[in-house]
Design goal:
alpha/beta, Rossmann fold
Amino acid sequence: MLFPEAVRTHLYIDGFNLYYGCLKDSAFKWLNPAQMAALLLPGHTITAIDYFSANVSARPGDPDQPIRQQTYFRALRSLPHLTIHLGYFKAHRVRMPLVNPPPGGPGMVLVWRTDEKGSDVNLATQMLVDGFDYAYECAVLVTNDSDLQGPIRAVQQKLGRKVGLLNPQQRPGRALHGAVDFYKKIREGVLIASQFGDQTNLTKNHGSNVSWMKSKRASFLRLGGLFQMSGIMTRHPKRPENS
């Protein structure tokens, strides 16, 4: 057995925290989270990955944003051990102060504010439910959301499980680091080595994900071999996907 003492681990990803923390202004948005976990969590058997996000809408300056997001979601669904959980966006008009108001001009302007709702609650709920179901020995979160300190302590103190953190932020908050058993920062080298290949065909058939990819870096078969070498299970029953 390659990892005789491998820890059964679930990975919980706050999609928007990950995106705005280390992907937004980078060339590494085509991120394969399973490969990232393999590189950052040696000795862990990743039995499931739960990805929390929300569908974005087209904007005047970026009408293709939803197309890019759905393309990435299809790539994520090609990983048979990953489930996407969707929250929602709430848009409303608010008055906000200008940083440098023009002389004699207004100090406040009316803007659209878009808030993503549900990801933090959904993530915390799923982590707790999985913990009560004995689905993991260790939960690892990809986030920098300090609001998750309470659920983390519950998993540790009430359920006796370990909780780790992969922090995507350049300036991570210390409060969350102090709440977990271990943490690692997601660095650029890991992002470079954790990219999906060039997408050539992705199809979805009755809930089963089928993917064929051609890559400059690695073929899909080689990625599958990497998952096995790193203790990541590539086949297991999937929970129904939230929509």
